[in-house]
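FW: tagging you since you asked about this chain on Friday. Here's the raw sequence from the shared folder, copied in full. Didn't touch anything.
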Amino acid sequence: MKRVIAITDRAAFVSLKLLVVLNALFLVSFLVVALLAAGKAHAGSPACGGADMPSSPAGCAVSRK
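HL: got it, structure written out here
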């Protein structure tokens, strides 16, 4: 009986280690994706883009004055 308990105890310990490793991998992947998304969110937007705005950048500069 002691042998069965030792085997199940070892299996539980290994499965807990596996869960810790998986959680760490998910955390790292989440942080990588969040950093990539934050970098793309701060990407430069065009100066003019609305339907009522002039199409040339020079026209945008004139319309802002």
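FW: Residues 2-64 form one domain.
HL: agreed, and The chain has two helices and no strands.
FW: great, closing this out.
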